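Re: the request from the purification team.
They wanted to know what the chain is likely to look like in 3D before they choose a buffer screen. I agreed to run a prediction and write the result into the notebook, where they can find it.
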Amino acid sequence: MTKTNSKATSKKKTIVVFMLTILLGYVLFIIPDIFFGVTKINGGKIGINLLWIALFQFLSILALLYASLKILKKDFSYIGLKFVNVKKDFLLGLIFGTLWTILQFVLIIPNTGGINRPDINGMLEMYDGSLIGTLSFIALGVIGGGITEELFNRGYFISVLKDVFKKPKLGLWFSAILSIVLFSLGHMPVSALDWFDILIPTIMYTFLFITTKRLTASIVAHGIYNMTAIILTYYLYFN
């Protein structure tokens, strides 16, 4: 087999593995939501059940990515999970995550409906008023959102897809933009405000990942915002 044919076969294999991984990943993210939403076990999507959702998403997606990367003869460092310049990346993530939190809870949310906003109402339905329930909600935001979503939607999606293109810059731009669009659509925005609320942080997380070539900053920024949003929503609107 010639080098050209070998590369073509390798890219076809990468595309197939990538598509199957992404499709299965979306299913794994949805399964616990559907399960608790339909069965209403222990109250449904509330309280300690939020922790089980977070753990299921994290462990199942981690196993999926491990298997997919192994088939592609890659490891987690390939998708940006590198423990170098941790302090710098952590600080970047902290700054970006905090700035977005301030912008949302000081300016945007209070001036666009506050407690009457559909997203705030949706969050309020997931609190049970207990410490364990609130900590479980935070775990969902940090583990299920900050860590798992960044590994899957930023690290894996962009890193693997961009390499099937002949031109690296084109591949990076295409995979980054597609990642932003699909991630935003996954949050089911229905209004211009919804699109703004999801597009801005998604672009920010993607920017952090691409510029640092690591996931640390985007994970911290995503996790910081989710955590503070859950805490602030509880104290500002739950009671």
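For the purification team: The two ends are 68 Å apart (CA to CA).
Please add any questions underneath this entry.
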